[in-house]
Write a structure and sequence with these properties.
Distance between the termini of chain B: 46 Å
Helix content of chain A: over 70%
Largest sheet of chain A: none
CATH architecture of chain A: Orthogonal Bundle
Radius of gyration of chain A: 21 Å
Distance between the termini of chain A: 27 Å
Number of domains of chain A: 1
Order of helices and strands of chain A: HHHHHHHHHHHHHH
Strand content of chain B: 15-25%
Largest sheet of chain B: 6 strands, mixed
Strand order of the largest sheet of chain B: 6-7-8-3-9-10
Low-confidence stretches of chain A: none
Structural class of chain A: mainly alpha
Number of helices of chain A: 14
Low-confidence stretches of chain B: 424-447
Oligomer: heterodimer
Radius of gyration of chain B: 30 Å
Mean pLDDT of chain A: 86
Helix content of chain B: 25-40%
């Protein structure tokens, strides 16, 4: 390959990043629109667009929504839109933290729930369900439980001033088991509340309201933006901690910052929807297979892909059981795993040569 | 300017480095040598700001590197590790561009300048042609060259190499080391390299440090450090150290540790010269024979080898024909030998006497072997006199062998026979050599 060829291939590769993000955003927008149309109540597209247009400042004067019924307004704005936006936020958050964990741990099995975050959140949620707290308190309990578990794992793993990733990984597993044992105990004594606990553990958006989203959005925004500042350090960490150090990365500090922010993002996400699996593990893998390992593009692309994936899964979850019982809907956690795993396996088998972790 | 000042490193309570000091200035190429576990890599790690020493300091232009930020250090110091395990399949070019990290601010993308530097580094290391290939699909040697390109992309003042050539074939080794040497000389780079191959160290280093059990055994110029005494002291291996005629650098030939072979109580006298006996001397010694040789001119390769192996030799002044005195001394040696071996040495008027000396052995019925690896016609520079003498020798009973291996086989056989004779009729054998009497060692130089 000639000099110019190499450089132009490289610059094409990097200039494609913006296009990639743009295309993914367009795809996300389309998915959101289509998803708004999905549901028991049949609301035509024109009405959906009119309802949305009314919400946009300056533009609302040009939109005529006189033909749209007020119940349609309520269904779109108060029922469908919040859970779709929650899907976007949670999907992006879980994918982002998955990217960070896989990058820091250089381990293909790493996902958003690695450092005991899931078990901590589950414990918090189960406790508040069993002891009859309200939905708002459940969210706070899950969030605090997740952070508590993360700090526990991090501090147990500390060896002097260093936190070796292998110890982190093992401590995370151990703490996970311990906390899940308590959750199992709570399930045993839960009685009538068992159903709620199980639903929360699988994860779903059926009770999401705008207030939930607003309460976690700051954590997720700050966490992902802060973690993205360290995207290049994540690339360097892939070379090994010692090499990263030799290339100017303050490894221990960067690792701590990344893990704390990623855990905060995960904790915030699961606090509103329970433990949705697969997204944090597989979305980064799938995105990496398609666009490569550079975290500067992998990170945003994974976030948008995660959002798209979760919105689609939630739409499926809402309608798949409707023919049988109009009020029954599947928890989205089941759909993510049923739909995602086969898709990942197909993709992996196609491209496994170029995939090494 | 890099100063290592009284560094002590510990893993737990075990001291791995103790009181190591080193001062390196621009343009120095320093080899760090020593056996496994002597602390070489630990020293590099403490210099590269990876392993903080428990005592002592590493000073980079008089600033303690552990007080500097890692990015500051990375601008000046690059490391090429022994092994690189890269987590994801980044393209080779991406990996090299990562070398620009310390020079970039957090929110910067690689600029055209970074690209140009990476390209130059990849051109120098001959890796540009696979810039777009995933690093994990490259061969070990290609990968290592990419890693070296990454180190060069850092534009460092100091380059630390930890056995950088382990994965490389010989041409790659030389190309990479030539490149590093050139940068060291032209760009006034400081190079610190851990070597297992003493000859590579000898060829490229200006100075060296030998570590033994975490302590400095010796440090100084490469010629001062690489001596057979030091090599024996640190590696516990005997080695021949010489200055090579072509490369003009010191070169080291480690000798395989002496096999504990039984002493055979059997003396072999070699008539050799011009290097034809060098290999045989070592083999015969290893096999347990005692060896003598002669007549050899001083400074002859065989003579130098004999000196190194502490073999008794009858010598003659350099480039001089064999004198009567030396010849007689040689005959004395032959009389004491149980076997005589004639190598494929070229004959001129200067050493024709040695063939006459072989006659003496045959007259005494000492088993005599002639290695005819090279036909006599091509190495006879005496108008056929040597060839004539050789055929006389053969008529008298000298055994012709094709090569060294055949000789060794024959020697074993013959030695077995001798043993039987010795065991049964030691007395008789003594009388078959009537002139065998304890004599004074005239003219024999034991060196």
């Amino acid at each position: 390959m000639s000099t110019d060829e190499v450089e132009s291939t490289y610059s094409r590769r990097t200039s494609r990043w913006k296009l990639t993000v743009l295309l993914l955003l367009v795809a996300l927008f389309v998915v959101v629109l289509v998803s708004l149309n999905v549901g028991y109540a049949q609301i035509p597209f024109g009405n959906i667009l009119a309802i949305l247009g009314k919400q946009i400042p300056f533009l609302n004067g040009f939109v005529d929504s006189s033909l749209v019924s007020s119940s349609d307004f309520a269904i779109i704005l108060q029922i469908r839109l919040p859970r779709i936006i929650a899907g976007v936020v949670v999907g992006a958050a879980l994918a982002a933290s998955g990217v960070v964990y896989q990058g820091v741990f250089k381990n293909p099995m790493a996902d958003s729930y690695l450092l005991g975050v899931s078990a901590g959140a589950a414990l918090g949620a189960s406790l508040s369900i069993v002891f009859g707290a309200g939905l708002g308190l459940l969210q706070v309990a899950a969030f605090l439980g997740a952070l508590f578990a993360m700090f526990l794992v991090y501090n147990i793993s500390r060896v002097g001033s260093r936190v070796p990733v292998t110890t982190l990984l093992l401590c995370g597993i151990a703490v996970n088991f311990f906390l899940y044992a308590i959750v199992a105990l709570l399930q045993v004594i839960a009685g009538d509340q068992l159903h709620s606990i199980v639903f929360w553990l699988i994860g779903g958006f059926s009770n999401v309201q705008w207030s939930h989203i607003w309460s976690v959005l700051p954590f997720i925004t700050i966490g992902t933006v802060a973690a993205y500042f360290y995207a290049r350090d994540l690339n360097l960490l892939a070379l090994g901690e010692e090499t990263a150090q030799n290339l100017g990365v303050n490894v221990e500090r960067v690792k701590m910052i990344l893990l704390v922010f990623a855990s905060m993002v995960t904790a915030a996400a699961v606090s509103i929807c329970g433990l949705i699996g697969f997204v944090g593990l597989m979305i980064p893998h799938i995105t990496r297979l398609v666009i490569g390992p550079d975290h500067r593009i992998l990170f945003p692309a994974s976030m948008i892909t995660g959002a798209i994936f979760l919105v689609v899964c939630d739409a499926i979850a809402r309608v798949i059981a409707t023919p049988f019982a109009s009020t029954l809907e599947l928890p989205v956690g089941i759909v993510t795993m049923l739909a995602g795993a086969p898709f990942f396996i197909i993709l992996f088998r196609k491209k496994k040569q170029s995939y090494a972790l | 300017m890099l100063n290592v000042d009284g560094v002590e490193c510990r893993y737990g309570s075990a001291k791995v480095l103790e009181d190591v000091s080193l001062s390196v200035k621009e343009g120095d190429f320093v080899g760090i040598l020593g056996p496994n576990g002597s602390g070489k890599t630990t020293l590099l790690k403490s210099i590269s700001r990876t392993l903080k020493p428990h005592r002592g300091a590493i000073l980079l232009d008089k600033a303690d590197i552990y007080a500097l930020k890692s990015a500051e250090v990375a601008k000046q110091l690059a490391v090429v590790p022994q092994d690189s395990n890269i987590g994801f399949s980044f393209a080779a070019l991406d990996v090299v561009l990562m070398g620009r990290n310390p020079h970039m601010s957090r929110f910067q993308m690689e600029s055209g300048k970074d690209m140009a530097i990476a390209r130059k580094a990849m051109m120098l290391t001959n890796t540009w042609q696979f810039a777009e290939r995933p690093i994990n699909e490259l061969s070990g040697g290609e990968k290592q060259r990419v890693i070296i390109a990454r180190a060069l992309a850092q534009e460092p003042k100091i380059l630390l190499l930890d056995e950088p050539l382990t994965h490389l074939d010989i041409i790659n080794q030389l190309e990479i080391m030539d490149l590093v040497k050139e940068l060291c000389v032209k760009e006034k780079l400081i190079v610190l390299a851990v070597f297992h191959d003493l000859n590579l160290a000898a060829r490229y280093c200006t100075s060296a440090m030998m570590l033994k059990k975490g302590k400095v055994f010796v440090a100084g110029s490469i010629v001062e450090v690489l001596t057979s005494e030091n090599i024996r002291g640190v590696f516990n291996v005997n080695a021949i150290v010489q200055r090579h005629l072509v490369t003009n650098s010191v070169f080291v030939i480690p000798l395989s540790p002496q096999k504990p072979s039984q002493s055979r109580q059997c003396a072999v006298h070699l008539i050799c010269g011009a290097g034809t006996g060098t290999a045989l001397m070592k083999i015969l010694l290893d096999e347990g024979y005692s060896v003598t040789a002669g007549v050899l001119n001083v400074l002859d390769t065989d003579s130098e080898t004999a000196q190194f192996l502490k073999i008794p030799v009858t010598t003659e002044a350099p480039f001089s024909p064999i004198t009567e005195k030396a010849h007689k001394a040689n005959l004395d040696m032959i009389r004491k030998a149980s076997m005589v071996v004639l190598t494929s040495v070229p004959f001129g008027y200067g050493n024709l006497q040695n063939l006459e000396a072989a006659k003496e052995a045959l007259l005494r019925e000492v088993p005599t072997f002639v290695i005819e690896e090279i036909p006599m016609e091509t190495r006879d520079f005496t108008q056929g006199k040597a060839a004539k003498l050789l055929s006389e020798l053969k008529k008298m009973g000298a055994v012709s062998v094709k090569n060294q291996n055949e000789l060794l086989e024959r020697l074993h056989v013959s030695e077995e026979k001798l043993k039987i004779v010795k065991d049964d009729t030691a007395e008789l054998l003594y009388h078959m050599r009537p002139e065998e009497k304890p004599k004074q060692k005239t003219g024999e130089k034991t060196v």
